[in-house]
């Protein structure tokens, strides 16, 4: 550092020395950068020249191989043609050359891969060493900077003492006013920066709090939605069980009245918080819960049995006694008469129901 070398007594109080030294340092840095760019350009030119020489050597080497392989052929003569044997020999040599080059290329790739890995490891070690040296250099520079700052402050104090002793009271008052003005401006600037940083921090904090509140509300709504969804699924399954009992009856296959107490209790437990389910369940008669009801399938079978019996005795008069012959004729008539069967509305409308 230029502050560490001893100063001449004639120039130590000259305030123009420091800017000149700084300009000289900047010029030296620019000169070093220019030298580095010049070396890079020279290396690029040397690489291009080496590549050109390598291409020329490869061409001459290939020409010598062809001349050694076909010594009787003059390739420099115009209109020269190769025979089939010469072409086959040239193709075989080319195949061998390609195989050798392929093997060399694979070997070179493996070598380059190993070199790349080694270079990467070296780079990692160099980066670690560079980081360590940089940390050490930063620490050293920090220590030097502190020392230089202390020395500069001490030297500045000495100069101020000499100036106070040499100059008049008016200059002292002017310096004091300037110092106070600078302190006031610096205080105002610092206070302004603190207010701006505090406003930015409050804005970021408010935004973060709003986002957290939004996420909390979303999670609560999602939890409530999942709970209602599970409750709806349970209620749907319980209603499906009640519907199955009303339509098909129990799994045992009995056709008598079936109690609905168990199914109704399942439906009631499936929706404990719903205000409508208890009202709907309260409309079910008590007799249906205790005595039970007949399944829909059993009722349809009974009505079908009654209908078949009525068709078989349609000719029998219930007001007077009938003969066995009339019973037989009525039975034969029921066998011969074809009754139309109505199709369900779903089949007429070509609709499909999903249960």
From TrEMBL:
It holds the Pfam family Mitofilin. GO terms for biological process: cristae formation. The keyword RNA-binding does not apply. Keywords: Coiled coil, Membrane, Mitochondrion, Mitochondrion inner membrane, Transmembrane, Transmembrane helix. Residues 1-49 are annotated as: Disordered. It is a single-pass membrane protein. InterPro entries: MIC60. It comes from the Eukaryota. Residues 1-10, 29-49 have a biased composition (Basic and acidic residues). One of its GO terms (cellular component) is MICOS complex. The keyword Coiled coil applies. Residues 120-185 form a coiled coil. It is found in: Mitochondrion inner membrane. Belongs to the MICOS complex subunit Mic60 family. Component of the MICOS complex, a large protein complex of the mitochondrial inner membrane that plays crucial roles in the maintenance of crista junctions, inner membrane architecture, and formation of contact sites to the outer membrane. Component of the mitochondrial contact site and cristae organizing system (MICOS) complex. This is MICOS complex subunit MIC60. The lineage of its organism: Eukaryota, Metazoa, Ecdysozoa, Arthropoda, Chelicerata.
């Amino acid at each position: 550092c230029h502050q560490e070398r001893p100063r001449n007594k004639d120039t130590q109080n000259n305030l123009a020395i420091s800017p000149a030294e700084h300009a000289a340092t900047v010029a030296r840095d620019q000169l070093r950068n220019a030298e580095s760019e010049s070396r890079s350009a020279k290396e690029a030119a040397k690489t291009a020249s080496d590549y050109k020489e390598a291409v020329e050597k490869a061409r001459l080497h290939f020409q010598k191989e062809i001349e050694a392989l076909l010594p009787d052929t003059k390739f420099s003569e115009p209109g020269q043609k190769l025979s089939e044997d010469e072409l086959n020999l040239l193709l075989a040599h080319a195949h061998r050359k390609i195989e050798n080059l392929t093997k060399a290329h694979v070997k070179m790739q493996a070598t380059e891969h190993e070199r790349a890995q080694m270079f990467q490891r070296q780079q990692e070690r160099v980066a670690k060493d560079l980081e360590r040296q940089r940390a050490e250099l930063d620490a050293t520079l920090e220590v030097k900077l502190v020392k230089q700052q202390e020395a500069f402050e001490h030297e500045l104090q000495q100069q101020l003492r000499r100036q106070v002793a040499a100059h008049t009271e008016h200059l002292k008052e002017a310096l004091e006013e300037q110092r106070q003005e600078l302190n006031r401006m610096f205080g105002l600037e610092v206070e302004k920066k603190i207010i701006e940083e505090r406003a930015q921090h409050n804005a970021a904090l408010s935004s973060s709090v709003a986002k957290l509140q939004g996420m909390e509300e979303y999670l609560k709504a999602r939890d409530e939605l999942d709970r209602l969804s599970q409750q709806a699924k349970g209620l749907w399954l319980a209603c499906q069980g009640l519907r199955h009992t009303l339509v098909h009856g129990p799994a045992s296959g009995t056709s008598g009245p079936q109690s609905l107490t168990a199914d109704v209790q399942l439906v009631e437990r499936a929706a404990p918080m719903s205000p409508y389910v208890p009202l709907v369940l309260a409309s079910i008669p008590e007799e249906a819960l205790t005595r039970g009801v007949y399944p829909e399938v059993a009722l349809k079978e009974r009505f079908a049995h009654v209908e078949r019996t009525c068709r078989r005795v349609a000719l029998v008069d219930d007001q007077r006694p009938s003969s066995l012959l009339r019973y037989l004729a009525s039975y034969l008539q029921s066998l011969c008469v074809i009754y139309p069967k109505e199709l369900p509305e779903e089949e007429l409308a070509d609709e499909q129901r999903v249960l």
